[in-house]
Amino acid sequence: MQKSWKKFIILGVIMGMLFLVACSSDNGNGSGDDDKIQVVTTIAQIGEPLSVIGGEHVNVESLMGPSVDPHLYNPTQSDIAKLSDADVIFYSGLNLEANMVDSFEAIAGEKPVLAIAETLPESALLDDEEEAGAIDPHVWFDYNLWQDALDAAVEELKEFAPDHADDFEENKQAYFAQLEELKEEAEKLQSIPKEKRVLVTAHDAFGYFGKLHDIEVVGLQGLSTESEIGVSDINETIALIEEHQVPAIFVESSVNQDSINAVVEGASNNGVEVEIGGELYSDAMGEAGTDEGTYIGMYKYNINTIYEALK
């Protein structure tokens, strides 16, 4: 009962903020660029590809930047204003942006709002091994699935702006051709010795990556960074590192690295030497304007960081 009342209050606050923002935005959107389609996304893994595919016809803004953890993110009043001004809204879904779902539900009746990962067939998604009924939301680490999810977003843009549909399609095909090059880059992961293909990270964000590239994935936390890490989790990870002689484990740009440091220290105390192989991008990409600030560049960076540390 208490949770229901809390959700009701939060929804009421969001509706109130939307009303106030709408009243203050009657004279046009906040971007000052009325000729372009105003697209708002949650994560850059959606926003950056759509900015390329949308080209000159769109203005894309992602709410969650580098080092931001979408599992824990709470919408600000500024975010609500951006959602109110948007023409089209895209988010990943599958409970990745858990604290924003009420916002999306409140605004969905007014404009197109699409959870792109939820357009994928259920059979293609990975279950959460720790929580019955939950789905792994980190779909972008399977570039085949993410291509399909982005395709659904492009179809939404075509429907919203049919006059630009041909341009969207042409740009999409060019972008998807670059994804084919990314797949060639990923082939180097298969040259890592099978027994060393163990990817240890702070939280379980790389399930789709592991399945796609035949790599065993170990996350100290569950799918969400809200999960707690116990001593048993650390000890089990150390035992696995020792069994497979894993040379390196990885921190993540959007997750506190204390748990990984605890594994390194614990392994050392047990006479097992393991290094930190580098920082991976998991729930967030790099800074805008850098290679790692693009979906393809971020993915290539992760591939090469993992390869160099484990080969």
The gist of it:
Keywords: Coiled coil, Metal-binding, Signal, Transport. This protein has 311 residues and is an alpha/beta fold. It is built from ten helices and eight strands.
How many beta-strand elements? Answer: 8
The N- to C-terminal Cα distance equals 53 Å
* Shape by Cα distribution: globular
- Write down the CATH class of the largest domain: Alpha Beta
Strand content: 5-15%
**What's the name of the CATH homologous superfamily of the largest domain?**
Nitrogenase molybdenum iron protein domain
CATH domain fold name of the largest domain? Rossmann fold
Rounded Rg = 21 Å
Low-confidence stretches: 1-11, 19-32
Which sheet architecture does the biggest sheet show? 4 strands, parallel
With helices defined by DSSP (H or I, 4 residues minimum), what is the helix count? 10
CATH architecture of the largest domain: 3-Layer(aba) Sandwich
Class by SSE composition: alpha/beta
In spatial order, strands of the major sheet run 2-1-3-4
